[in-house]
Specification:
The protein is built from four helices and twelve strands. By secondary structure, it is mainly beta. The protein has a single domain (14-189), classed as Pnp Oxidase, Chain A (Roll), CATH 2.30.110. Its cofactor is FMN. It comes from Geomonas propionica.
Length: 190
């Protein structure tokens, strides 16, 4: 029997993304976001959700762009720091020892040290309760060659992305692969 937990955000897991933007003065900033995901394949788009009180909120609206920076597990401390400090008061890139790289495609910085970066142009926003959902069209994905598989695509076993459990506020790494998507279920179609 299942026990009702009531209303809550007990989704498992959520991504750990550091969202890059430039503030009004042009200073690069990062915000750690766990409320995010793919929202369209054509056009390729992702979504992130922020509260209006966050320093990155106005920056993304004014610049019309953001980057999604996917940290590997070795950057867990920097990722957590970027989510609890405010870019209004601190230079998160400098404090975390990260390098702000200027995108040639969108008006937002990305983290040079992170293995996977998604550059986005803001398509639209949707007000949802205390959050605003920012929908970004993917204009490019950049990956370190060291995290690519034989087909030239990002390999999660090499990226080693962080994941987050909102229920207990703990970061985790990925587990072992369990099967190939759009393939292992075919045995049930026989």
């Amino acid at each position: 029997m299942k026990k009702s937990l009531g209303i809550g955000t007990h989704v498992m897991p959520t991504p750990v993304w550091l969202v890059g933007s430039y503030d009004i003065a042009g200073k690069p900033n990062l915000a750690t976001v766990a409320w995010g995901g793919v929202c369209s394949s054509d056009p390729a788009a992702v979504t992130i959700s922020l509260r209006k009180s966050r320093y990155s909120y106005d920056a993304i609206l004014k610049r019309g762009a953001f980057t999604v920076n996917i940290p590997s597990q070795q950057f867990a401390v920097a990722a957590d720091y970027a989510g609890i400090a405010s870019g209004k008061n601190e230079d998160k890139f400098a404090k975390a020892g990260l390098t702000a790289a200027k995108s040639d495609l969108v008006d937002a910085p990305y983290v040079a040290e992170f293995p996977l970066v998604i550059e986005c142009r803001l398509l639209q926003t949707v007000e949802i309760g205390v959050h605003t959902q920012f929908i970004g069209e993917i204009v490019d994905v950049k990956a370190d060659e060291s995290v690519l598989d034989a087909a030239g695509l990002p390999d999660p076993a090499k990226v080693l992305p962080l994941i987050y459990s909102p229920t207990n506020r703990i970061y985790y790494g990925l587990g072992e692969a369990v099967g190939k998507g759009f393939d292992i279920g075919k045995e049930m179609m026989k």
